[in-house]
Specification:
The protein has 106 residues and is α+β, with helices and mostly antiparallel strands. It has two helices and five strands; from the N terminus they run E-H-E-E-E-H-E.
Length: 106
Amino acid sequence: MQAIVHKEVKMVKKYEIAFLIKEGEGAKSTAERIKEYLTKLKADIQKESELENRQLAYPIHKSREEFKRAYYYFLNVEMDTKSIPEFERNIKYDEDVIRHMILVED
């Protein structure tokens, strides 16, 4: 009788992730924290944008605050698709991230 061995198959895809980060001195540390989340999930960060402070098209409300300006931050990463839900959980509860969006690159 032979034992059945199951291999875990990793489905790695390329993603572009966009963030709106609260204004203030903590913006750079928030960007570093985001990169740490990704590193813990074994993501390969391929490209990183500079933090860019911009006026928002419309006010965004989060945690009883209204934001009219924010830092835009973009990352291009390659990571396992199974890691996305855990990454989103971490980002969702980060008070300094106003919004985020994950896009699959073609």
